[in-house]
Structure formats: structure tokens, C-alpha cells
Design goal:
The complex is a heterodimer of chains A (299) and B (436). Chain A is α/β, with parallel strands linked by helices. Chain A has helices spanning 2-17, 42-56, 80-101, 106-110, 154-176, 181-184, 201-207, 218-231, 234-267, 271-283, 287-291, and strands at 59-61, 114-117, 122-124, 129-131, 133-136, 140-143. Chain A is globular and about 60 Å long. Chain B contains 7 helices and 26 strands. Chain B has helices at 2-16, 31-48, 169-184, 270-279, 294-310, 379-385, 391-400; strands at residues 53-58, 65-72, 78-82, 93-95, 101-104, 108-111, 137-143, 148-152, 158-163, 190-194, 197-202, 208-213, 225-231, 234-237, 249-253, 256-259, 264-266, 283-286, 292-293, 316-325, 334-345, 348-362, 369-376, 402-408, 418-421, 425-432. Classes of the chains: A alpha/beta (299), B alpha+beta (436).
Chain lengths: 299, 436
């Protein structure tokens, strides 16, 4: 029997070598844009390679391949100008924040491996909603509606870009280490994945959700709590707590405390320090310094 | 023991299934080599036109075509230029800060993979998730120096590129639009001759042919529409009609369009056109200055008498028109002769319409237009037609009553100018879409 098994194995190995030896592979049909010295986007591609790929092991995707998105949505690519701006903003308000507050290796180890930009939102006309971002498989973040970004409108930047960055990154983190089960049991009765968009900001706050979207389901609630706490000023947060009232604010505070503990225990991230650093940077936005990477010590 | 035989059998089978030399490749090159050849060809063709490309862009299978100009650059950038009411508010607009790439998916794909404000305006989903339902990734169906045929990946519109003639962008768009208006303006109905078969092409001015049997009205409910896009010397269909799916380009020649597969589009039979046009709730308005003979004399006499009767030197005959009378105010199926005129009296400005019921039909042989008087149809017509001091009204009406031959003055679009002739008059008429 042993002999037979050996023959069988030998046959299988032989089969491995028996493929058509005349087959030849032609050169790859894919051209690395960075290798193309005359490419229109070469300078930007090299910049991305230096500041994202080499430093954080992340691919920054701004050239859209429709195959990599949900085909049921109509979308358009991001413009080169907006991609450039968002790349700088991502370094200023996301990557360098983690480098400063947590550790220079944190995002290299746990951050997304791909960041994809898309120019338009993904609009669900039937529900009357639009997607501003999403995270996939614990390693890819897609930021949407980038073409609509107005660099001089901090509130819009917060809503479309910064909050979405922290929101989606929090998804990446909990996709790697689960968030506390207890979080899902705080006030699950009002989660409504289909009708959350019908709630006003006030209604959501009074029910104990930081935003209407947070009231869609527990995992969105969890990351919305983190993202909103990071990007909202103390005054705005306080105002929201007042609107939420005694019941709502107590619930949101409880959720925030769970988020704070989870980030500290599972990831070694100090949420309050993150909040303080992001607020400091948001309040001192200097586009010239951001685009020249002065905050990284470059001129 | 059973296992032993199974293993032996499997081992023998595995040896037999190695490279089968009897299987012949249909192609001389490997799949990868053929893919590479398709990419090389597409790149070479797109970069090969020194003046760029006239892009006849069909966002999807249900939208009319629009003209763009594309210039592909070797560094991967692309310049797109357009001027239309839909995406550029009729302003000439160019954007050259974006890139293109030819890649391979289930065939060679041309992708404009960063945002270009001219090109992607057709695909932007704002504000309802659909936008104009256009594409920016295309399957390259064929690519030759003379023509590139693209098919949108998501919305399946066919878009055609042809080498751009040497001319300024502004002039190109103006010329295309002017041709388009002259060919299709006024709701022209054309006749398509495809082999022995003839069809009517309605609604060309919308950029979407509504195709029917000869003499029939445009299909109103859920019609299959055939998108077209103007060119400098004709138009391009996104996809051809009937069996001629690839017959796209139609070039204007003297008095007709000649399709690349031999189909002919012409003004067709004027008599049928005349009747079909008014039955589509439109009408024919006389050109008072171009017309000659008794009609012209009666029109002048009408105005002169109107001036003397009203003592208003600016009083005048406004228009004389034949139209279909299908509203609830009229008898179903009858036609109207509508004479409009205006004057000023003590009570102010008067704009009057004298409406007469007429019957309009073709002669038995279909080679004459017959217009028969029935009676006045509104109070104005009744009063003025029977006013002894104003016999010019009845005289004018009578010049339009009779049997006429029809001659096209504009050979491809008789809606622009058509002559109703008899031995007394030549009444030049043009199509009007709103006579009510």
C-alpha cells in the first residue's frame, strides 16, 4: 500500500512538470506608472510612493478602476487637484496625528493597506441617502464625494473628509479587534438600518446617538461616536450634549467611555489626546504649510 | 483493496491528461499576446491623430449624441472640449488636467480614470444618483485610424471617434449645430429607404429618431428610439436600424443622406409628408413675402383694406396657416385655415384669428393636395367673412382653396420651405409646431 501511495505521489509530481513546455509568457501588459518617466502623473505618483507606500505601506489609489467598486452605483473618479489636496490632508489630520499621539509605527502596522478616493458620493436614491466612505476587509478605506470638497469650508471638510477618515479607520480597527459586546446592548431598541435617515440630528441625540447615522446599527454607532468625538470641537460636543438632554447625553457619554477604554486597552490609543491633537490642527489650518508638508518638518 | 485500484486508476488518468497535442489553437498568438496586440493597436490609433478626435458621445442607449473633441497625449493626459446646452451651458469649455489609459478587462478598455470636468459631466451621479447616465470606461470594439467604436461599460452607449478636421473648436461646434438644425429643425419627418423597405424618421430634432412605417405618426408610448449625433456633413447613429446595426454614418449628398451601407434618407414623398405633418398636431404657415400669384395679391389687398377700414396705418395680415384641429374646441379630424391679423382701434390693440373649417386630403392618385372649404368656424371668421365691406377676407380664403402640387424648396428639410402650387398661385409654406 505504501508503495502504491509513493507511485501515486510520483505521478502527481510528474503531472506538475507535464504542462505544455512550449507555452511562453509574454511581457506583462500592466505598466507601473511610476516606471513611466514621461507620465503626466509621475510627480504625484512618486510623491505618493514616498509619503504613503514607502512610509506607511499603503497604496493611495486615485485613478479609478470601476471594477473595484460596487457597480450598482454611478460614480465618477476624483480630480487630480482634489486627490492631491486630500493626500496632504490625510497626512496632516490622520497619519501624522497617529505618528505624534500614538507611535510612528501604529498606522504602518494597523492602518489600511489601501486608501481609495472617488470623486462622487454613492447615492441611494430610493433611500434618499449617500455614502461618504466605506471600509472593506480590515485593510481598505474608500473616501467618496471628494470632488465636492471645498478646502476653505472647515465644517464641510469635517463632514466629508476628516470625520469619514476617522469613521472608516475605526471600522478597520474593530474589524481587527472586536468592539465590546456591551456596547451593542446599551440602547439597541432604536437602531433602524432602513429608516435612520428620517431622523433629525436632534431626534438622534435625544435617543442617545451622536448622529442619525449612528442610530442605524451598533457598529456604525461605535465608530460615529469615536469619529465625532475626535473631529468635533469641545464647544460643539457640549452643545450636542445639551440638545441630547439628560437621557441622551448620559447614553452617549457611556458609549464614549466604552470607546475610550476599548481604544486604550486594545490599541494603546488615548482618545482624548487624539481629540486634542486633531482640534489643535483643525484650528491652525494653514494650507501653505499643509501643501508644503511643513508640519513634517519639510519646506 | 478498493482504494488500491482507485489510486492506480487515478495515477494512470493523471498521466493521460497531460498536454494533449491534438488540441489545436485557433489563434497563432497566445491570449496574452493578442491582448497586448489589441492594447498596442488602441494606443497607437488614439495617439495617431495629430488633430485629435471628433468624439460623437452617446451617454447611453437612450440619449442623443453630443459632440466633443478629445486629444490624447503620450504622457497619459487627455484634453476634452465641448459646447452644448446640457453640460457647458452653451459655453466652450476645455479641461486638460486628467488622464486616460488603455487597459485590458474582457477586451481592451479605454478608461478616463481621473475626473475631467468636460467628460465626466456626463457620468456624474449628482444630484439623484443617475445624473446623465454616461460612461467614462469604454470597451474598445474596434480601432482604426479612420474610426474608433467604443461601448460604455456600464450604460452601453456606443460612442464613435473620428479624426478631428483641422478647424477651431468653436467653429466645429457651431457648424455641427447649424447643420443639425437645418436638417432636423421644425420637426422634420424623413424617409429611410433600406433596401425595398421604407420608414418614417420622426423627431430628428430631439436627436432621437422615432421610426415608424411610412405615413404613421410617431410612436407615443414606450417607443424604441435611435440616438443620433450631428457631424459636419451629416449625422452618426449610435447604432443602426433593423438588420443594419453597424450602419452608423450618414453623409449628406445634394438632397439626401447616404448611409455607409447604402441606405438612403431623404425628404421622401411630399404629399404624405404634408399630411403626416399636420396630423402630428403641427401645421403649415404661409410665407407672405416669398409667395407669389393670386395668394400674394390677395394678402396685400387684405392688409390694404384692413388699414383703410380700421384707420390704423400699422394694421396688417399676420399669418395664414393650415393646421390640424384636434382640440376639444374643434371637430375631431377636421382641419383649420387660420388667418391672423392685428390692428389698433379706440379700445386698444386687437389680435384676431379667423378660423375656417376646411378639409385637406390627397387626390385619389396621391399626387395632388386638395383643400376644400367647409365654413367659418369661429365668431371672428363668421363676422368678417360675411362683412360686405371686407370681401378681401373671402378672397384670401379662396386662394388657399383648390388643388395644389407640392414642390420642396429645401430638398432635405421641406419643413423649412415648401411650395403649394396651382395655376393661380405659388404659396410658400413652412412647418410650424405651435399654431394654437
Amino acid at each position: 500500500m505504501r508503495k502504491l501511495q509513493s507511485i501515486f505521489l510520483l505521478c502527481l509530481i510528474a503531472l506538475g512538470f507535464a504542462s505544455c513546455k512550449d507555452d511562453q509568457f509574454s511581457e506583462s501588459i500592466f505598466v507601473d506608472p511610476v516606471e513611466d518617466e514621461g507620465a503626466y502623473t509621475r510627480e504625484f505618483d512618486l510623491w505618493l510612493k514616498k509619503y504613503f507606500t514607502d512610509k506607511y505601506n499603503v497604496e493611495f489609489i486615485y485613478k479609478l478602476d470601476d471594477n473595484s467598486t460596487d457597480p450598482s452605483y454611478n460614480i465618477v473618479p476624483v480630480s487630480l487637484g482634489q486627490a492631491d489636496t486630500v493626500a496632504h490632508l490625510a497626512l496632516y489630520l490622520w497619519y501624522d496625528v497617529y505618528d505624534s499621539v500614538v507611535s510612528p509605527d501604529f498606522l504602518k502596522l494597523y492602518g489600511p493597506k489601501m486608501i481609495q478616493l472617488i470623486g462622487s458620493p454613492m447615492i441611494n436614491a430610493a433611500q434618499g441617502t449617500e455614502k461618504l466612505g466605506y471600509a472593506e476587509g480590515g485593510n481598505k478605506i474608500t473616501l467618496l464625494k471628494i470632488n465636492e470638497m471645498k478646502p476653505d469650508d472647515l465644517e464641510q471638510l469635517n463632514e466629508y473628509i476628516f470625520k469619514t477618515m476617522h469613521h472608516e479607520f475605526s471600522h478597520i480597527l474593530h474589524q481587527q479587534k472586536a468592539y465590546p459586546k456591551e456596547f451593542t446592548q446599551i440602547n439597541p431598541e432604536d437602531y433602524d438600518p432602513n429608516r435612520w435617515q428620517d431622523r433629525t440630528d436632534r431626534e438622534a441625540l435625544e435617543l442617545g446617538y451622536i448622529t442619525p447615522y449612528a442610530s442605524s446599527q451598533a457598529r456604525e454607532d461605535f465608530v460615529e461616536t469615536i469619529a465625532n468625538y475626535i473631529v468635533k470641537s469641545d464647544a460643539t460636543w457640549q452643545k450636542n450634549m445639551e440638545i441630547a438632554g439628560e437621557y441622551g447625553s448620559a447614553i452617549i457619554s457611556l458609549k464614549l467611555e466604552m470607546c475610550r477604554n476599548w481604544l486604550a486597552e486594545k490599541w494603546g490609543v488615548d482618545l482624548d489626546a487624539m481629540h486634542a491633537e486633531v482640534q489643535k490642527r483643525q484650528n491652525n489650518m494653514n494650507w501653505e504649510d499643509i501643501m508644503s508638508l511643513k508640519f513634517l518638518g519639510e519646506e | 483493496m478498493k482504494t488500491k485500484y482507485l489510486l492506480i486508476g487515478f495515477a494512470l488518468a493523471s498521466l493521460l491528461c497531460a498536454c494533449n497535442r491534438d488540441e489545436k489553437s485557433l489563434f497563432e498568438q497566445s491570449a496574452a499576446e493578442r491582448a497586448q496586440a489589441a492594447l498596442d493597436n488602441a494606443n497607437a490609433v488614439l495617439l495617431g491623430s495629430p488633430t485629435g478626435w471628433e468624439c460623437l458621445y452617446f451617454a447611453n442607449r437612450e440619449s442623443r449624441g453630443y459632440n466633443l473633441i478629445l486629444e490624447f497625449h503620450k504622457d497619459g493626459s487627455v484634453k476634452a472640449t465641448a459646447k452644448n446646452e446640457l453640460t457647458t451651458k452653451n459655453q466652450l469649455k476645455s479641461d486638460s488636467n486628467s488622464v486616460w489609459v488603455v487597459t485590458y478587462d474582457y477586451g481592451p478598455i479605454l478608461s478616463f480614470n481621473t475626473y475631467n470636468s468636460v467628460l465626466h459631466a456626463w457620468a456624474d451621479p449628482m444630484p439623484d444618483g443617475d445624473g446623465l447616465l454616461g460612461d467614462y470606461e469604454f470597451l474598445i470594439l474596434s480601432a482604426t485610424p479612420e474610426r474608433v467604436v467604443l461601448k460604455g461599460k456600464k450604460h452601453s452607449g456606443y460612442t464613435i471617434l473620428r479624426p478631428m478636421p483641422e478647424m477651431e473648436a468653436e467653429d466645429y461646434f457651431a457648424a455641427c449645430n447649424a447643420k443639425f438644425d437645418s436638417f432636423f429643425g421644425g420637426g422634420n419627418i424623413m424617409t429611410l429607404q433600406q433596401g425595398d423597405q421604407r420608414y418614417y424618421l420622426h423627431d430628428g430634432s430631439s436627436g432621437l429618431f422615432n421610426i415608424t412605417e411610412v405615413g404613421e405618426k410617431a410612436v407615443a408610448e414606450d417607443p424604441t428610439l435611435y440616438p443620433i449625433c450631428p457631424t459636419l456633413d451629416g449625422f452618426m447613429m449610435s447604432y443602426g436600424f433593423n438588420d443594419n446595426k453597424n450602419e452608423r454614418l450618414f453623409t449628406f449628398d445634394t438632397d439626401r443622406f447616404v448611409g455607409e451601407a447604402g441606405s438612403i434618407i431623404s425628404a421622401g414623398d411630399l404629399y404624405t409628408l404634408f399630411m403626416t405633418y399636420i396630423e402630428n398636431n403641427k401645421g403649415w404657415t404661409a410665407n407672405l413675402t416669398e409667395s407669389t400669384g393670386e395668394f400674394s395679391e390677395a394678402a396685400s389687398a387684405f392688409t390694404e383694406k384692413l388699414i383703410s377700414l380700421t384707420a390704423d396705418s400699422k394694421a396688417k395680415l399676420g399669418s395664414v396657416a393650415i393646421t390640424f384641429a384636434d382640440s376639444i374646441n374643434y371637430y375631431e379630424g377636421a382641419y383649420l385655415l387660420r388667418i391672423k391679423y392685428d390692428y389698433k382701434d379706440k379700445k386698444g390693440k386687437k389680435n384676431l384669428s379667423a378660423d375656417f373649417l376646411i378639409d385637406t386630403h390627397l387626390s385619389d392618385k396621391g399626387d395632388r393636395l386638395v383643400v376644400e372649404y367647409i365654413r367659418p368656424h369661429n365668431a371672428t371668421a363668421e363676422t368678417w367673412y360675411n362683412e360686405p365691406k371686407f370681401p378681401e377676407m373671402a378672397a384670401l380664403v379662396n386662394t388657399v382653396i383648390g388643388t395644389f402640387t407640392l414642390e420642396a424648396i429645401d430638398p432635405i428639410n421641406p419643413i423649412n420651405a415648401l411650395s403649394m402650387k396651382n395655376d393661380k398661385s405659388a404659396i410658400v409654406v413652412s412647418g410650424s409646431t405651435n399654431l394654437k
